[in-house]
Amino acid sequence: MDFRGIIKGLHHVTATVNGAQEDYDFYTRLLGMRLVKETVNFDNERVYHFYYANKTGSPSTVFTTFPYKGQGVRPGVAGYGQVFETAFSVPEGAFSFWRERLKKHGLDISEETRFGQKYLLFKDPSGLRLSILKDETDRREPVWATEKIAPEYAIRGIHHVTLAVDDVDEVIDFLEPFGYNRVHNDKSRILMKAIGNGHNNGHSNGHADSQPKPTMAGKSLVILRADGMPRGVNGLGTVHHVAHRVASLEDSLRIKTWLEEEHGIRVTDVRDRKYFQSIYFRIPGGILFEVATEGPGFLVDESVEELGGSLKLPDWQEKWRSRIEENLPSYKK
């Protein structure tokens, strides 16, 4: 069984971070993303779950965090068996803007060339490894233009994530039938792309030469050979999991059957996350994957204008709202 064409690319990335205020300030004020949903970790109601994304929370633009400050969670260890880095894409001409903006705000940045492209490397306040690269083929709308970040410079969304692994062949042998094709090798890195139908905001008049150039943005994984790295340990400043998007729950259930019957991989039951439905499992090498449906989306309980404006809870937690709100840390928007 082969799922190339069913996996449509990335849905979101979820990380374990430190304080709610510093997290909110970094992703909304510095990076210019929109808080599209303020809710709680459904498995720990004392912890927020922040969803940062574009205007409506489109899959592949979503970066989510669990701020665990004060909950006794230790700092994590970045290493193999984890999502090692999350890369965001910006338009042509925006690279120098972000270099200067990050420097102005006191971030320690470096530059590196990978696959023939320049990257800005930096970390968020919790130590998460992030990067920015330009991609002129990324036709997604700006995540959320602000007074300080004009639309022509704004981040478009997650471009790809880097998976640090100790057995590259084992992981690629899994990822290819799962839905990602190998595209390019670059020293210790291998670039892979989902071949399912992903976003395409370009327009065409039907002529072959007017077809938009294919994009890697929001549809890619990079496999990093983890030579000399320690084994990763989940905790503050590490990515908890990466989610891949599918069109429907039926697609997720087909993948679940394949994982269990063909690979002997333990898969969770379907989890209702209110804004999408999910299954979770660990791939060879130990990285936690999620497969999430594209719908129903973040507009099920707020209008476009209201997104992220107030704490939203699933129906089964509403009866405990007062207690939940009392136990959450305060922060300013």
3D structure, described in words:
The protein is an alpha+beta fold and 333 residues long. It has helices spanning 20-30, 95-104, 168-178, 249-263, 321-327, and strands at residues 10-17, 34-41, 44-53, 62-67, 82-90, 110-114, 117-123, 129-134, 157-165, 180-186, 189-194, 220-225, 238-246, 271-272, 277-282, 288-293. The protein has a single domain (10-327), classed as 2,3-Dihydroxybiphenyl 1,2-Dioxygenase, domain 1, CATH 3.10.180. Helices cover 16% and strands 33% of the residues. It has an 8-stranded mixed sheet with strand order 2-3-4-1-13-16-15-14. The chain has an 8-stranded mixed sheet with strand order 6-7-8-5-9-12-11-10, covered by helices on one side. It is globular and about 50 Å long. The relative contact order is 0.22.
From the 3D coordinates, which CATH architecture would you assign? Roll
Largest sheet: 8 strands, mixed
Helix-strand pattern: EHEEEEHEEEEHEEEEHEEEH
Oligomer: single chain
Gross morphology is globular
Identify the notable features of this structure and list them briefly.
single chain; 333 residues; alpha+beta; 2,3-Dihydroxybiphenyl 1,2-Dioxygenase, domain 1; eight-stranded mixed beta sheet; 5 helices
